[in-house]
Design brief:
With about 130 residues, this protein is mainly α. Helices cover about 45% and strands about 10% of the residues. It has 5 helices and 3 strands, in the order H-H-E-H-H-E-E-H. Strand 2 and strand 3 form a beta hairpin. Helix 3 packs across helix 4. The longest helix has 15 residues.
């Protein structure tokens, strides 16, 4: 049985899907993993490249990537002895972007992601509508 989140009513989410979604949120509860995923949004990178980008040792990055791979948030490709990582799909990329963009709204002023829009939006007051 395949469920589509956008077509389901609130309260109709099967328990196993809710648990799988919770696993994804647990993976995103670590700032290093969020930074790794952010780095891979538009490119495929090796462990060493990712380690340099996030400023962490390669063994630590490898452990984070293994968890992300088990949670099906990243995909791997082997080329010789190197393994390259990228986000698994557009849903993961959208989730990471939305989480980061939402966090930008917590700060003062216009969020950085609104600066590139043709008609910049004013920052919404806290607790107000977007």
């Amino acid at each position: 049985m395949r469920m589509h989140a956008d077509s389901e009513k609130v309260g109709c989410l099967p328990a196993e899907q809710a648990e799988l979604a919770a696993v994804v949120f647990r993976m995103l509860a670590d700032s290093t993993r969020v930074r790794l995923l952010w780095s891979m949004l538009d490119q495929e990178l090796s462990v060493n490249e990712l380690a340099a980008l996030v400023g962490k040792p390669s063994p630590s990055v490898s452990q984070h990537l293994a968890k992300l791979r088990l949670a099906r948030l990243v995909h791997t490709r082997r080329e010789g002895t190197q393994v390259f990582y990228r986000v698994e799909n557009d849903h993961v990329a959208r989730l990471v972007r939305d989480a980061v963009f939402n966090a930008e709204h917590a700060g003062p002023g216009v969020p950085r992601h609104h600066h590139d829009e043709a008609t910049p939006l004013r920052a919404a007051p806290r607790g107000g509508a977007k």
